[in-house]
Amino acid sequence: MASTKKSIGLVVTQVAMAILLVIMGIMTLQLNSSGSSSTLSNLVNSARASVSGNEIASAVYSLLGVKSPLAAPIIIVLGICELLGGVFLCVNLIINTGKLENLFLVIILVMWCVVIVLVDILGKSTGFASVNWQKASDILAYLKDLASHLLVLGALLQVMKKD
Prior knowledge:
Elements: H1 8-29, H2 39-45, H3 55-64, H4 71-94, H5 99-122, H6 136-160
């Protein structure tokens, strides 16, 4: 282990975050420029249950449009950040990364805040404005997604916390 001071709960949280970020990064990068899933991501669809790595791409496409020249690069950058962030969290469990740890954790945290803004606030199909506030099922679905993203944010903050 990179640090013997970490509690078992924190190690489990870090492993879960690493797995989540790697999987979401892979799934986000599997989208082609038309916004539809690739064949490989169709194989992954059955395994992803309620966690949708493609929600990032869907939010970007809904904001910028499928034909936008900015959409694909933004999706690729976010996917790479997720993937590298997950890999870094795994490596950080084994190897002491020193001062690089804080830099990477801040980058991951900022990236996740961007995801929350894109998906939960600005997203045309999943964001705040898209919720039918007269329908309980829409409200509950929105709050469930928002809560899951905030749980990830909280877990990242816990991993960043030293003692």
